[in-house]
Amino acid sequence: MRVLALSGTTEGRHLASRRTVISSLAGRTRSPLLPPGEVRIGGFGGVAGLTSYLTSTGIDAVIDATHPFAATMTSHAAAACAATGTPLLILRRPGWTAGPGDRWHRVPSLSAAAALLPSLGERVFLTTGRQSIAAFADVPGCWFVSRSVEPPAPPMPARLEVILDRGPFGFEAERSLLLSYAVDVLVTKDSGGSTAKLDAARTLDVPVVVVDRPPLPDGVPVVATVDAAVQWLDQLEALTQSGT
Ligand code: NAP
User: With pLDDT > 70 as the criterion, what percentage of the chain qualifies?
Assistant: First the structure.
């Protein structure tokens, strides 16, 4: 069974270490962490490009293991799989939930996060990725420190310090970063996964602006773990082999 895994996440890499898949990366970073096995890099060329890729390479199933905020790729996968009748599963880690002591402000978008910031503090730690920096370019009165794997490109806030680094980041490191930059407010997407920065913010009583996830496409099954995705592939393979 030929399986295309839309990747770019830890889950995508773990999936590729458990089952033979063709992993696909967008090609955003110059030295990406490569999943084991076959890897292709670069966009497909929209829904039409992905549709013809699925057909011409004889893909039997697609697992969308992209980041929860890679909404364009996810919607393209849903459309191309529907057009070709290719089984599709979304593998998406669960989002975060606030607990006692958290001072979270949930917002629907990056622009809503930007609008809220001046009321929360002056010194802002942006962990939303380099492609999100533009949304904060015109926030009045704030100073920013951002963290990303690759340097951001303009438009950017005038008062910005950039940290180039790749996670995972532990609790102690996150706590000392918040302290050393005297951060008043942390901004994050609801990416899920490690809670180190959120735990650090809670212990320092730092408010957190959490950008909600974009919606998932209708009618596509979703699982939260690599184990469940492997199980789905096993079931699909068994069905294919029994000819049903
Ligand atoms: P996006 O906005 O949903 O996708 C934009 C375009 O990039 C897609 O239309 C597609 O181009 C191409 N693309 C995206 N993911 C791809 C993949 N896995 N393989 C091949 N082409 C892909 O995506 P994004 O938010 O820029 O994310 C790009 C990649 O970075 C994804 O693999 C994602 O898992 C990873 N990532 C994203 C974030 C985030 O916050 N968004 C965080 C960590 C990792 P065509 O239309 O030409 O096919």
Answer: 100
